[in-house]
Amino acid sequence: MKPLILTPLEGIPLVQEGDDLVRLILEALQRHKLDLLKGDILVLAQKIVSKAEGRRVFLETVKPSAEAKELASKTDKDPRLVQLILDESAEIIRSRPGLIVVEHRLGFISANAGIDHSNVDEREGWVLLLPKDPDSSAAAMRARFEEASGARLGVRARLGVLIIDSHGRAWREGTVGVAIGVSGLPGVVDLRGRRDLFGRELRATTVGAADELAAAASIVMGQASEGCPAVHVRGFPYPLRQGRLSELLRPKEMDTFR
Q1: Domain ranges within the chain, ordered by starting residue
Q2: How far apart are CA 130 and CA 133, in angstroms?
Q3: How far apart are CA 166 and CA 134, in angstroms?
Q4: Which fold has domain 56-128?
Q5: How many angstroms separate the CA atoms of 166 and 79, rounded?
Q6: Class assignment of domain 5-50+132-249?
Q7: If 0-12 CB within 10 Å is exposed, 13-18 middle and 19+ buried, where does residue 17 land?
Q8: Spatial separation of the C-alpha atoms in residues 11 and 230, rounded to whole Å
Q9: pLDDT 10s per residue in the chain (258 long)?
Q10: Which residues pair with 91 in a beta bridge?
């Protein structure tokens, strides 16, 4: 097996609305003397994508509904924040003081619809929503990265782009990095039909490859003040193909935990 190499792309400046993320990451690759080769993957933290796309909201501009005020009273949350959570959600799954678990409009289950206060703005009152369409964001950036690879090396490389966020889990402590936007790499790899070490056929093994890579990249990025929102990956052990977030989402009829 090839080694899996994850390189943090340090030195990317704080991202603002309208910034060209592809340009910033290409500049970081140059500083690290990294060319984009066939099979490479770029992993981006959700925050920089959301910031560049203008998904920052000032709470003073939000008018909470009666539903938001009622849920806020039950969860000890700011009614304006609760209104944003409702706007970003398809369904409220659970709630308790301090926490609202929802099915996000993108299809996954998350706490507080992924709305974040940390590393958003030095002033109080700003929050950050997830990108509107992370798969499309990843695909648009991948096209430009592939174009840039061809311009630099003369051969356009087949690449992958992954947008990740930190999620909690129902039965385990601690957050982990998960994929919320996928382009150019598999979300899930189906190993059914292959043989194990003893020749037995695998009948139920599917691998959440995009989430596994997201977790690895999240360790490299850090979760606090590290300021490293992008990672270059080389040696991904599965063939690249077109993928999407929906591969990773279990259909409701197969969800035994709700």
Answers
A1: 5-50+132-249, 56-128
A2: 9
A3: 14
A4: CofE-like fold (3.90.1660)
A5: 24
A6: alpha beta
A7: exposed
A8: 10
A9: 789 999 999 999 999 999 999 999 999 999 999 999 999 999 999 999 999 999 999 999 999 999 999 999 999 999 999 999 999 999 999 999 999 999 999 999 999 999 987 666 656 789 999 999 999 999 999 999 999 999 888 889 999 999 999 998 888 999 999 999 999 999 999 766 676 666 776 666 688 999 999 999 999 998 655 579 999 999 999 999 999 999 999 988 888 777
A10: 103
Q: How far apart are CA 62 and CA 132, in angstroms?
A: 18
- Per DSSP, the three-state class of 230 is strand
> Both tokens of residue 132?
């509107």
Dihedral sign from CA coordinates of 83, 88, 93, 97: negative
For residue 77 the two structure tokens come to: 């949350």
Looking up tokens 């402590």, which residue turns up? 173
